[in-house]
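Quick entry between incubations.
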Amino acid sequence: MRLGISLAILGLVAGAFIGLRVPLVLPAAYAKYLSVAILAALDSVFGGIRAAMEDHFDNTIFLTGFFSNAILAGTLAFIGERLGVELYTAAVVAFGVRIFQNLAIIRRHLLKK
Amino acid sequence: MSRYLSITAVALVLGVMVVQQFRITGYQSAHGTPADRAQELTVELKQLEKERADLAAEVEDLERKLAQARMGYSQAAEALRTEITKLRLLAGLEPVRGKGVEVVVVPRQGTGVFTVRDEDLLRIVNELRGAGAEALAINGQRLIATSEIRTSGAHITVNLIPVAAPYRILAIGNPEYMKNTLEMRGGVVETLREWGIDIAVFTREDLTIPGYQGKTSFEYARTS
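Done. Structure below.
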């Protein structure tokens, strides 16, 4: 558990470093899709943490869920933009709700210990 | 082990994404381009396009008005030109042609007493005017409103130009009427013949009378 957390923090720091070092900044038009993708990824991460706490963490589900959620959320926002429907907002609401749910469950698990 | 690897990978990707997003939003706030700039610009574009269409319509309207005004101007100019031509014709400034009579007045040779006087010419001109002559000239001098016929020394002057015998008086008007008026019994022709002056009246089918050539400006008279 300790190793996992430290590895996660290390990965985050390394990712932040890489992101800062990359000379290219995505065009502002993609900011919307990226933000939804980040929300989806965060949701996956919290879902993973919750699963780990409930002792049914599955590595494959975690990995595929993370990437597919992120990509799907971005694509959905993109499609919504093209269709003229604000699917972006729907994704934000859905992932926001799930993140808060996961956070609440994680909090309870932490408090139960 | 693979679990830690996946956690690291996920954390790495998440870190990259988050930082990218921060950089984008930071870039936007630094350069003042919000995410929905495209929408704002679209709305503005639509407004401007509408405005442009309105202005184009206005341009068209004004151009039509301008064309109308131009047309009115040219019409007015045309009317003025016609009026000017008419008035010049009336004033005797334009050469005119038409049928009329030619009166030739010659004093008989050798009789110094019976010379042609200004009054004789004035009488002829007066008779012709009375018979409806529309244009008159004596030896090429057009008679207009200010024309005089008077003796000035040895000569008779018309329009301040001396004219000499033989006197040719041209008149445009009804030829028969003018001829009859001049030649009626006890009329001017008969009287002058009695005084020893040769006078002949010819009707002419096509006469050309020159326009007045002198000055046409008034020095004293003003419009009231």
